[in-house]
Amino acid sequence: MATLPEVISNGELPVLDDWEPLSRKRILRYFDRSLEYADVSAYVSAQGELLPDERIILVFLNAVYTQSLATVELYCRYVVELLNYARKPSFSVTARDVESYIRQCRMKGLKPRSVNTIIGALKSYFKRLADTGAIALNPTAFIKKRKDGAGISLPGNLTHSLSESEMLLLFDRLAEHGAPQRDILLLKTLFMTGLRGEEAVSLCWKDVTVWQGQRYFNVLGKGSKERRIYLPDEIDEGLNEYGKLTGTSPNQPIFGNLRKPSRRIGRHALYHMVKKWLTTLMNRPDVSPHWFRHSCFTYLASKGVRLESIQALAGHASIDTTMLYNEAAQLMVPAGTAFNKSHSTNKKNRIRLGSSQIHWVQASHGSGDSSSQNQWEGNRPVVHPFGNMRHRHSRGPARSSGQGLFAHVHLICSR
Question: Which of 27, 210, 288, 376 is the 20 to 30 A CA-CA neighbour of 84?
Answer without folding.
Answer: 288
